[in-house]
Specification:
By secondary structure, the protein is mostly helical. It has one helix and no strands. It has a domain at 11-57. The chain has one helix at 17-57.
Length: 70
């Protein structure tokens, strides 16, 4: 556990093997989802920073609207 293991099994208690594997598979999927979400959030923040810099540095008026023209 000190080396970073998430769980362990004692040889005499192998009935925990199936549930432990299932739990670890679920947990690893959650960790991947969180990492993916953090990466997407970071990319979105960077895009907002770039757009903000572009607007601040523009000598002209900047108008922002969506596809509907709003």
């Amino acid at each position: 556990m000190k080396a970073g293991a998430q769980d362990y099994l004692i040889k005499g208690n192998l009935r925990r093997l199936g549930p432990a594997i299932e739990r670890e598979l679920r947990d690893s999927e959650l960790r991947r989802d969180r990492a993916r979400s953090r990466a997407e959030h970071k990319r979105a923040e960077e895009l907002v920073r770039k757009l903000s810099r572009a607007v601040e540095q523009s000598a002209n008026t900047v108008v922002n609207h969506n596809v509907a023209g709003i």
